[in-house]
Write a structure and sequence with these properties.
The structure holds two protein chains of two kinds. Chain A has no helices and eleven strands. Chain A is mainly beta. Chain B is an all-beta fold. In chain B, about 0% of the residues lie in helices and about 50% in strands. In chain B, about 35% of the residues are buried. Classes of the chains: A mainly beta, B mainly beta. Chains A and B meet through β5 and β10 of A and β5 and β10 of B.
């Protein structure tokens, strides 16, 4: 069964760091561009970052650029999001998501994780 | 950034109704548009990709249309399981952006 499972969320103070993980199963992670998408409480969805299937290219939303780093370990079938200098406005459920077509650079997200909650609070 | 604007924000409907949600892009995105359904506490679920292609396993009462800047999601014969929030998303240009959502409520 094709699945994504996030972990690593929690409560963290402003200015601190947190690393999220996303374990993939049922498919070969190394052939898909992968994404992080977040949703602040009671609000809509926001694309956060993307990493190419080979790990050579990453793009970030302006709101996280310079503070967040997306990476992957294809040997472990795992995606990561390193979040530094966290702010209150980063409080959200963080989802990892897979694009529909292997090695495609533009398509819809067909597989989502269940999400992990990050709360940034003093 | 490409702005995606959905209307209405909230829609009240009854079981059996036909409902239509509109999504407008601030610039042309060709047909690079997806629709998702989200229920409280759950991850979004893909319904439609490439503006009008139905994702595998999604009931045929869901349909999408449009290209360029104007898109619609139609649910014919609304079922109890369809009461949820719906989002459009463009994947033509980074940053990929979502509409603000349309909540379909029971009338």
């Amino acid at each position: 069964q094709v699945q994504l499972q996030e972990s690593g969320g929690g409560v963290v103070q402003p200015g601190r760091s947190l690393r999220l993980s996303c374990a993939a199963s049922g498919f070969t992670l190394s052939t898909y561009n992968m994404y992080w998408v977040r949703q602040a409480p009671g609000t809509g969805l926001e694309w956060v970052a993307v990493i190419s299937y080979d790990g050579n290219n990453q793009y970030y939303a302006d709101s996280v650029k310079g503070r967040f780093t997306i990476s992957r370990d294809n040997s472990k079938n795992t995606l990561y999001l390193e979040m530094d200098s966290l702010r209150a406005e980063d409080t959200a459920v963080y989802y990892c998501a897979r694009i529909r077509i292997a090695m495609s650079t533009g398509d819809a997200y067909d597989i989502w994780g269940q999400g992990t909650m990050v709360t940034v609070s003093p | 950034d490409i702005q995606m604007t959905q209307s209405p924000s909230t829609l009240s409907a009854s079981v059996g109704d036909r409902v239509t949600i509109t999504c407008r892009a601030s610039q042309s995105i060709s047909r690079s548009l997806a629709w998702y359904q989200q229920k409280p506490g759950k991850a979004p679920k893909l319904l439609i990709y490439r503006a009008s292609s139905l994702e595998s396993g999604v009931p045929s009462r869901f349909s999408g249309s449009g290209s360029g800047t104007e898109f619609t999601l139609t649910i014919s014969n609304l079922q109890p399981d369809d009461f949820a929030t719906y989002y459009c998303q463009q994947y033509n240009t980074y940053p990929w952006t979502f509409g603000q959502g349309t909540k379909v409520e029971i009338k």
